[in-house]
């Protein structure tokens, strides 16, 4: 069980929960500081850092030049000195100029220096589609990071986890890529664009404690118990999966991975051994997506329990296409169809 | 004073919302004051130039000083028309976004002189590597308005087949390279294009654009090294519109030096130019073309201008700058300044201006109407098969299978 915060809970959107996590850490640890494009006075293009500069001062929360490589590179230098920098990359699509800093530096500093230097940075960045953002405001690059050993990759699916996982990430001794599913910043979008979006208000996982608490990295959550098939998802897709399962009428178990590195392999294996079937849902393109790793792991560890081939429901292997947002986005209908396929008698 | 340790400096702009705007910190020399050395001057003799500000039009609308270009009134009227068309189009399509007809829009209001003058001056086989704020380039070359709107609506007639975000155009036949949402990367393509032109012994020039905020990217600096090392025949333009979303230019280093002065470290000439002065833009670009043609390679130009509107349809600039800052901008509105000049030299008048505005508004309305007859975003789109085209030169088995799975055959 996650540690509970002390002060009273209140209902928060994911944006407010993330803001609360940053506020908590800035308040309790003078070594924590945050910077990124437009995050200071303005409070960030998604308003996650709103009010933090006014409250904690410009030295703790400031605007950065449009230089992703230097944002992450400088954060590594600060972290090596002993600070706890939390940086924002405005969209995950724009982390790529910093890829060398992540792959060759953040992920390897501890290893190559024999433990003399390390980089406990947290890189927050909104990712994912469903917002008509076109090719460079919609991508889901989690597999790129998961492939780089030495980096942790965390993806919350609700306000409670967002705060607890972000605090855990900041306190973690390793570099963490913290991917924020922007489509669910303001409400649990379930992949049906024709249905009016509900806000987080009233959602049980939007009850967020005011103070410090953590959700440990590497612990998946079972969002729905079921017996017939295991669905693996994270981020926005947890809500899409719930809708797809409901649509299918199949008794599926839904696992929210919460972090893909570290990965809670026990929970996955235990579930698939129980259900004998597995469907993986992610927004990212399919080929060499994180679903490929999950599929391989399940096959390696649960082969003799499997009653049907593992299915992956993913974004198509194309760039994210503006006009075809909902043709591309793997919605509940595609998941329901996959669930029906794996349930067909052999 | 005993040394007490360092202090972390965090820059901040002079004024914020609720305060009176001020541009007192800007040192703006009068029109005509910045010298114009010969374009064949060696770069090391040009090291003061990036700290000046090449200006031609004075406050009364006279063209004065060494940068005054040789340009006929008909060309000036074409420039005025292209700028006006850009402004009218921007306003109309921004409104279309507010009406829910598309997902996104960005205006170039206040910056129209840069792209229109350069588009008119460069040749048909030269290539510009645009940012999202140089629509004027296409307007000056009479790109079909309906195609612009079709692209913005991602409809069945979208020339980019529904694949790209609104306004991230591509128009090869108009000397307009493909835009993408990630900043800075195409600056290097401009240099590569120019190197290819030189490699082949051609006479084509490349023109790259980058925002002042984006000069912080590594791509900007690496590109300047290439441009310098290979004497690439290109014009590298920084549009300094003072703001990068909510970040004032000081976050990109403007409090420490000028953007044009970045050229010095690379051994390139750097010009700093009044970007709201159509004639100055023209003259500086002409100077850079002559320099490239003399075999002296690249020029870096900072166009000093101002983003009069929000960053995009997702932005509200009154959250981070005084709401009346745009009207206080000391270098005025490029359209009004060219209009004033043309009127002063008796080549334009209010009646002609009003007639032109009416005509261009009519053209824009007609284009919007035509595009809306095809459909707005979500109401019309290219066939879903288009989603799977153009990933590779020919789709591989994955795409063929997925196209089938998507029911798009
Ligand atoms: C690599 C990258 N980082 C961040 C962004 C997000 N972003 C889009 S526009 C913008 C500001 C650009 O400012 P500037 O270069 O000054 O151009 P302007 O918009 O003022 O014309 C930012 C930060 C991006 N598109 N690409």
Keywords, separated by commas or semicolons:
heterodimer; A: 346 residues; alpha/beta; Rossmann fold; 2 domains; 7-stranded mixed β-sheet; 14 strands; 18% strand; B: 409 residues; two-stranded antiparallel ribbon; binds thiamine diphosphate
Tell me briefly what this model is.
Chain A is of the alpha/beta class. Chain A is built from 12 helices and 14 strands.
The domain tally of chain B reads 1
Our measurement of the CA-to-CA distance between the termini of chain A, rounded to an integer number of angstroms, reads: 39 Å
Instruction: Indicate the low-confidence ranges of chain B by residue numbers.
Output: none
Give the proportion of residues in helices of chain A.
Answer: 25-40%
Which chains share the greatest interface?
A: A-B, 39 and 50 residues
- How many distinct beta strands of chain B? 7
The gyration radius over C-alpha positions of chain A equals 19 Å
Quaternary structure of the protein: heterodimer
Q: Which spans of chain A of ≥5 residues are poorly predicted at pLDDT below 50?
A: none
Structural class of chain A: alpha/beta
- Going by CATH, the architecture of the largest domain in chain A would be 3-Layer(aba) Sandwich
* Beta-strand residue percentage of chain A: 15-25%
> How many helices of chain A in DSSP terms?
12
Number of domains of chain A: 2
Alpha-carbon distance between the two ends of chain B: 78 Å
Strand content of chain B: 5-15%
The CATH topology of the largest domain in chain A is given as Rossmann fold
- Biggest beta sheet summary of chain A: 7 strands, mixed
Bound molecules: thiamine diphosphate
Protein architecture, described:
- The complex is a heterodimer of chains A (346) and B (409).
- Chain A has 346 residues and is an alpha/beta fold.
- Chain A has two domains: 9-209, Thiamin diphosphate (ThDP)-binding fold, Pyr/PP domains (Rossmann fold, 3-Layer(aba) Sandwich), CATH 3.40.50; 221-342, Rossmann fold, CATH 3.40.50.920.
- Chain A is 34% helix and 18% strand.
- Chain A has helices spanning 14-28, 52-56, 68-81, 99-106, 109-112, 142-146, 159-171, 236-248, 265-275, 290-302, 325-328, 332-343, and strands at residues 9-11, 32-36, 61-63, 84-88, 122-127, 152-154, 176-181, 207-209, 221-224, 229-233, 252-256, 259-261, 278-285, 311-315.
- In chain A, helix 10 links the parallel strand 13 (278-285) and strand 14 (311-315).
- The N and C termini of chain A lie far apart (39 Å).
- The model of chain A has no long low-confidence stretch (mean pLDDT 96).
- Chain B has 409 residues and is α/β, with parallel strands linked by helices.
- Chain B has one domain (47-312, 328-378): Thiamin diphosphate (ThDP)-binding fold, Pyr/PP domains (Rossmann fold, 3-Layer(aba) Sandwich), CATH 3.40.50.970.
- Chain B has twelve helices and seven strands.
- Chain B has helices at residues 73-98, 112-121, 135-140, 145-153, 185-200, 218-229, 262-265, 278-293, 325-328, 334-344, 350-374, 397-405, and strands at residues 127-129, 206-211, 234-240, 243-244, 247-248, 270-274, 299-304.
- In chain B, the strands form two sheets. Chain B has a five-stranded parallel beta sheet, with helices on both faces. Chain B has a two-stranded antiparallel ribbon with strand order 4-5.
- The structure holds thiamine diphosphate (TPP).
- Thiamine diphosphate (TPP) sits between chains B (131, 133, 181-183, 211-214, 241, 243-245, 307, 311) and A (37, 66, 68, 90, 94, 97).
